[in-house]
Every structure is written in C-alpha cells, then in structure tokens.
Amino acid sequence: MVDALSGGRLDIGVVRAFLDFEFEALQVDMGESRDRFNEAVEILLGTWANERFSYQGRHNRFENVMMRPRPVQRRPRIIVGTVLSPESARYAGLNGFGLMVIPYAVTLEGVKQSVKIYHEALLGAGHNIEDHTVQATFHLYAASTEAEAKAAAREPMERYVQYFADAIAGDRWSKDYVGYQGMAEKVLGLKNFDVLYDGRVMIGDPPRLHAMMERALEAGIGELSFITMLPGLEQAKVLDCLRLFAEEIMPRYR
User: Fold this and answer.
1) What is the secondary structure of 134-155 as a DSSP string?
2) What percent helix, strand, coil does the chain show, rounded to 5?
3) Distance between CA atoms of 254 and 96, rounded to whole angstroms?
4) What is the pLDDT of residues 93-149, one digit of tens each?
5) Contact indicator for 47, 27 with CB cutoff of 8 Å
C-alpha cells in the first residue's frame, strides 16, 4: 500500500533478527535464521514481481497468492542490514541489493571492511558499484557547541546502549551468528560515552558534524539516516537539534 500511495518510491530494509528470546517466543530454531531470511526475501520479490505467486521452500509453502493493492514497482529497492556478519554484506552484493551498516556498533573502520566485501560481491556478480549505495544509520545530536552537545546527549546515549546490552544479555547465538559471541560484553564497553563520541555517532557542533560527514563518505557511505529520539532526551532538545541540522549542516550536501 505504501508503494502505491507514494507512486513507487518505497525502499524496503531487511535484517535478520538476533535476539534469542524472540526466536524462543515464536518457537523457531535460531539456527534456521539465515535460511528463513533468504526465503523471506525471495517471497517478497516474487510477490512484487508477479500478479500471482507460488512458493515451495523449506520453511514456507503456498500456492497462487495475490498481493493487494498491487505495488507500482515490480522490483523494489532492497537494503540489507548488517552489523557483524560479512555473509550479509556478501549476500547483499551478490543479489544486487543495497547495504545498511551501523557505525556505532562496529566503528567506521569496521564499516570499511563490510563495504569492501559488499563491493567485491557486487563486482563478482556483474553489478556496477556506482548503481548501489551504502546506507548508514547514525545517532544524531547537534548543538551550537561541542560541550553543549556532549552534555545533552551523554546520558541518553548511555541509556540507549544499556537497553541494547540488556536485550542481548543472554549472549546466546547459533551457528548463523559467527562473530557474535561475547557481544554483550562488547556492547557494555560502549557505555563509555567517549568511545562512542570518537567517530561512532553524529554528536557535536556543526564543524564536528561536517568532519564526521566527510569521514562517513571516506568509509564508503553514500546515504545517511539518523536516530534523533534518544531515551530521555527532551522533545524540545530534539527539535532544536533538527533545526540546527537543517540550517547549518544540510545546505552543504544538497
């Protein structure tokens, strides 16, 4: 429906679930995560491309399904999210999808590694790198001075990290989550605001944010989205941040 209402401008972001208690609640084996994800994307593309669609997979089976209302696009832009999994970056490239990265979790150096894998996969599958953009999501807080920005954003960011740490406190992973072991402890390390501030978030005054934009571009990021509603941050401060960003940052990148 959103694609129809927007005249064919819907982008679809997809990412594998990774919280063990969600799999338990749905009585799904976490070790099936990758297979289920791949099937879900195949079904998404099939239902968009065809008036009627049938599918026979390992986890999903159905006949002659119709999607209503029909979308305008026949192949929507798919953006695959990745945090630690090189396989997700490779999968995105091989299939000609977009890639979304999370710099606060892996640093911009870590992002560069994901982008490298992604670009190699794109080229290997015959796709043009220039036709595919890497998207990144940053936490954003802009203020007139660095001191003001840090003072306002420190506690909300520490809360955000704690919520994430609590969600993965069990530190239980399947074979489909190589490299995730020990993540709970690593995330708790991000409660040190100075670690986050050092190139993982878009927090600061306009000069610092411009510098961070350049660093993001150098890492291979071509499209940005922002998390502005940080836990406990007053709405008035959020609105002040957005106004400053619109006035002092955005004009340079139009």
Assistant:
1) EEEEEEEEE-SSHHHHHHHHHH
2) 50, 15, 35
3) 26
4) 999 999 999 999 899 999 999 999 999 999 999 999 999 999 999 999 999 999 999
5) no
For 18, the token pair is: 């990774």
Of 113, 111, 135, which Cα lies nearest the Cα of 14? 135
Q: Single out the residue of 51, 75, 79, 78 nearest to residue 65, CA to CA.
A: 51
Whether the predicted pLDDT of 179 surpasses 80: no
pLDDT at 243 exceeding the cut of 90: yes
List phi, psi (to 5°) of 11.
-105, 145
Yes or no: say if 114 and 101 are a contact pair by the CB < 8 Å rule: yes
DSSP states along 47-87: HHH-SSEEEE-SS-EEEEE--SSPPS-SSPEEEEEESS-HH
Segment 47-69, tens digit of pLDDT: 999 999 999 999 999 999 999 99
**73 is written with which tokens?**
């696009």
Q: What is the CATH number assigned to the segment(s) 2-253?
A: 3.20.20.30
